[in-house]
Amino acid sequence: MRHPLLLAAFAGCAISTLSGCMGNNSNAEVAEAMKTVNAVDGTEMSNVMLTVADPNEAVAYFSRTAQESPDRIDIRRGLAKSLVRADKPTQAVKVWQEVLAMPGATEDDKVSLADAQIRSNDWAGAKATLNSVPPTVETYDRYRLAAMIADSEKKWKKADSFYETAAGLTTTPSGIYNNWGFSKLTRGDAAGAEKLFKEALSYDPDRFTTKNNLVLARASQGKYDLPVIEMTQGERAQLLYTAGLAAVKRGDVNMGKTLLQDAIDTNPQYFAQADRALKALDAGTPATIKG
């Protein structure tokens, strides 16, 4: 169903067409007016498919439309983005390469190709693609990907510089601070990671992945009490479970048992994993615990 504004636009064109017929306007002008209305309607549909539609439905829509209009670069971009959303990065890489071969391709399209290459685990290809983007292109996505590539090569100073630059180029830096914190955690800098996870939560206090990472960073330092952050009862149980497993892995088995019991007491129906882990510890088989 068309948007009311589009219906109004269509009605306006109809009135204009009637007036044009009275003035002996050509059929070509009428066709052009209709083409404009359909283009606006199509743009709205594309936006819906790229945001709220099911990813696989979006792939089907853009695939079909790309066959009908093979010269439309915006549709090809939509297909590539939808393939990424549908967790099909290898196919997305091929489509982005097709986009780059079309008239009207931009440097941002290269950045999007690099993103898809990283998602398909082609780090060398992603690096080569990103290096082909002029340094004058200073966008959030460009620096976010550069940070990830530097991380993969263990070039920590470069990674930190890129993460910091990326954080300054977006109004919603929670995700980049979380990624930066995880990078710090994998390097063994748990204290630095803790600060970054807290920074991430200051922008998005509902992101559970960051909450879990924060608990891991604190537990890596022997700080097993839960941080003062917003959490539901279910999240509290999961975070206590995370802290308990981390304690066991650090050799603090008794503390781990206490935390797992706390997880059970917090939400016994919702969180059965803690009960299984505690029973494994009591049976003397901590190696069976996974987390």
Automatic annotation (TrEMBL):
InterPro entries: TPR-like_helical_dom_sf (IPR011990), TPR_rpt (IPR019734). TPR repeats lie at residues 174-207. Keywords: TPR repeat. The lineage of its organism: Bacteria, Pseudomonadati, Pseudomonadota, Alphaproteobacteria, Rhodobacterales. It comes from the Bacteria. This is Lipoprotein.
